[in-house]
Amino acid sequence: MTNKTVLISGASVAGPALAFWLERFGYTPTVVERAPEPRPGGYAVDFRGASLKVLERMGLLDQVRAKATELGEMTYVNEAGKPVAVMKSTVLSGELEVLRGDLVEILYDATRTKVEYLFDDSITTLRQDETGVDVSFERSGSRRFDLVIGADGLHSNVRRIAFGPESQYIHDLGYYNSVFTVPNHLGLDHTARFVNVPGKTAGTYSARDNTEAKALFYFTSEPLKYDRHDAAAQQRILTDAFAGVGWEVPRLLSGIAGSPDWYFDSVSQIKMPSYSIGRISLVGDAGYCASPLSGMGTSLAIVGAYVLAGELAAAGGDHVLGLPAYEERMRGFVKACQKQGKDSGQWFVPGSKAFLRIRNLNFKLLPYLPWRKLIDELPLKVGNSIELPDYAINASAGLPQQPGAQQR
Asked: Which helix (H) or strand (E) holds 252?
């Protein structure tokens, strides 16, 4: 096997999932992560279609199911708190939903004894040649790897260093979103409540068996200039954006200061002409973020990690063959997920009073409409819009069999 040592930047979802499969296929992965430890908290993430098959092949599906949020219906209310529409759980929660922090913990526990993790560190330079990549770190000494994979999210450090400025690849969808943990002061029992005004969505849903809740906000905006590392400035932006909105919004915003897991960012997609350049490649949000509105970001990360590791293994470690094969297999899936993310915005964050009324009326009448099944079927169709090879394991050698490369 060629190219045995692989550096992965990012220890959220795509990074540990990729490390899991690379180690399984006989490689030696190392994961570097800027944070001092696996990051807890975060919003609920969904699984649909092919991603569930990957979890099953990892032997982790039961562990993930045990952490399921089991979120039920989501009720839309007006600013006075009166219910105006109800949305089925499967539309927003997929076939399986867990908190991002719980998933990160499961993936880390599945890899920590077999994979080297470098926490509290980050890549500063990458220099590749015909035989490998020289990597410099902020804290660790320089090292050489056969391959480097960026699994470091929307604002990927690896992508910036190897492919160029983020501005070349990021496509804003015209929204910003925020999520953070708050007390379950509404006493929600595996349910959610949301309010809409034109261009703004705010709400809360219960988590961890109703012992806490997540506050979730979306709002439309032109691109904003702010420091991504300045939480106080971001919190002022959010508070100003929702000033004057009724219902429970002021109370939810009052929980910002005490929240342990503040998150705020643009709702954006990443579109790359190629996922790889020489010995450096991208996976998950770093290479093809579909945005939180797609409901497919975690599925893309889990599936992308499996396909990247599998195609490299099927090519015997030859990145010249394996990386293009990975991209070829993922392109259609990425396109479908990104389209869903772009199309979902107007329904989740209606831009006008007129469309808001139309949306609510559709939700009310949905149980009686002939196309009601499409609401469930369309996201599942997207989730299953990739054919997953079974990258077979040669039991005697512990390595993937070469015929796997012929399954495309």
From this structure: helix 249-253
Cβ neighbours of residue 396 closer than 8 Å, sequence gap 6 or more: none
- Between β-strands 5-9 and 147-150, what pairing exists: parallel, antiparallel or unpaired? parallel
CATH 3.90.550.10, domain 5-406, yes or no: no
Could you give the CA distance from residue 276 to residue 295 in angstroms, rounded to a whole number?
Answer: 25
Nearest to 257, CA basis, from 235, 240, 241: 235
Instruction: Return the domain boundaries, the chain.
Output: 5-406
Look up residue 136 and give its DSSP letter: E
Q: Which two tokens stand for residue 188?
A: 């929600």
Residue 75 pairs with which residues in a beta bridge?
A: 86, 193
Helix (H) or strand (E) holding 282: strand 280-282
Q: Are 223 and 250 contacting, i.e. CB atoms less than 8 angstroms apart?
A: no
Give the tokens for residue 382.
Answer: 């997207």
d(CA 46, CA 39): 18
Pairwise CA distance, residues 355 & 361, whole Å:
10
Residue 248 near residue 227, CB atoms below 8 Å: no
Structure-block tokens of residue 335: 């396109």
Task: Give the residue among 294, 342, 321, 401 at the shortest CA–CA distance from 172.
Answer: 342
335-382 pLDDT, tens per residue? 999 999 999 998 899 999 999 999 888 888 877 776 666 666 777 889
Amino acid at site 115: V
The letter for the amino acid at 401 is Q
Provide the 8-state DSSP code for 68.
Answer: B
- pLDDT tens column, 147-170: 999 999 999 999 999 999 999 999
Q: CB pairs under 8 A, 24+ apart, for 372-376?
A: 375/88, 375/91, 376/88, 376/90, 376/91
The secondary structure of residue 292, as a DSSP letter, is G
**Terminal C-alpha separation, the chain:** 21
- Interatomic CA distance for residues 45 and 42, integer angstroms: 9
Residue 175 structure tokens: 């929204």
pLDDT band at 89 (very low <50, low <70, confident <90, very high): low
Alpha helices in 112-152 (DSSP H): none
Tally of residues, the chain: 408
Token pair, residue 80, equals: 């006075």
| Cα angle value 51/33/28 (rounded, 5°) | 70
Query: What CA–CA distance (Å, rounded) separates 392 from 398?
Result: 10
Give 85's contacts (C-beta < 8 A, 6+ positions apart). Answer: 75, 76, 359, 360, 363, 364
